[in-house]
Amino acid sequence: LGVVAVHASADPSGGPWADAPAASRVVPALVHAVGTAFDAPFFALALLAGTAASGGPPLRSATRWIPAALVWSAAWPLLGLGKAAAFGYAGTWQARLVDPGAWLRALLLGDAQYHLALFPTLLVLLALAPAFAPASRRPVLALLLPLPLLTSAWLTSELGALIADPGLRPWAALGARALGWSGYAWLAWALGSLGPSFSPLRRTALVVAGLGGAAALAVLLNDAATVAETGRWTGGIAVNSARGLLPAAVFTVFAAVDIPWPAWLQRLGALGLGVYLVHPLFLDACEVLLREVALSPPVRVGIDIGLVYAGSLVFVAVAARIPGLRTLVVAGVR
Q: Dihedral of the CA atoms 276, 277, 278, 283 (nearest 10)?
């Protein structure tokens, strides 16, 4: 639901509703800021923590989602044609379909759709898993998390100046993202050694995560106020680092507290990665169907979140019952 909220809070062009009055931008900006807690890094942490807890070969865990990632990466260039035609950039989109380099980047970098970059980044981290395993014996290594996040945020902001060749920048962006997310790998392996409930280590983790999460949220809420006022995404090293830190803080709290999740919520959780994979399909459909409907940004964001989340959830729940499609929605993977 959080990742749907992040992506549905932007206008159809991916912007912060620049043409709307400033007051109408407040709710979308706040939704975007809070939803960041459950964006792609949260999924990365969940998958990395599951791998660390399994104790098996790290890359073996990737076999659960590699087929789905490859199929959706190959399908999105075709699935995006409908929105491209509706919004008048079909020619540009069709040019990508006949560009071998674009297909290669779609499969290896996940750049066919904004959410698919999660998977190649995870593969890089899983290949380097032996470097992170010491955190299971020395959980203090998880405190390194802000360092790679800050470094990655700086590298990402300077890619244009550091890499002259535009063709190399997507590959450099993958490296920068993997560097930043390496902090999540340290954290994922460290969380497996928190010990029993109410142990000193768990209490320490809660305090550190609470302070870090509060600081990150404060930065993002301040940024949301700026976005609402100016109608422009701001970014910057501090904001991008906060976007990386908040999911880690929330995930740590969930891991450190023994929450008796109800059975129905656990069943929904088993569909979460599938919702992550397919939700842009339903978001594109909403944007096409509602493009001529005059709605204020808060109302439009609320409708999009409800329809996209419900549609994605129903699609994944149905596909999970069909043997041939179950793999494509990664049903049951936590």
A: 60
Question: Measured between alpha carbons, how far is 326 from 322 in angstroms, rounded to an integer?
Answer: 6
Give me the helix-helix angle, 169-191 and 40-54, nearest 10°: 50
- Vertex 9, ends 237 and 211: CA angle to 5°? 45
Task: Report d(CA 229, CA 239) in Å as an integer.
Answer: 16
Mean pLDDT of 91-100: 87
The per-residue pLDDT for range 192-224, each reduced to its tens digit, is 888 777 688 888 999 999 999 999 999 999 999
- Which has the closest alpha carbon to 35: 247, 222, 266? 247
pTM to 2 decimal places: 0.90
pLDDT (average), residues 54-68: 84
Both tokens assigned to 308:
């996209």
How far apart (Å, rounded) are the C-alpha atoms in residues 282 and 274?
13
Burial class of residue 5, CB neighbours in 10 A (0-12, 13-18, 19+): buried
pLDDT class of 333 with cuts at 50, 70, 90: low
Q: Each residue of 115-126: pLDDT tens digit?
A: 899 999 999 999
pLDDT band of residue 239 (cuts 50, 70, 90) is very high
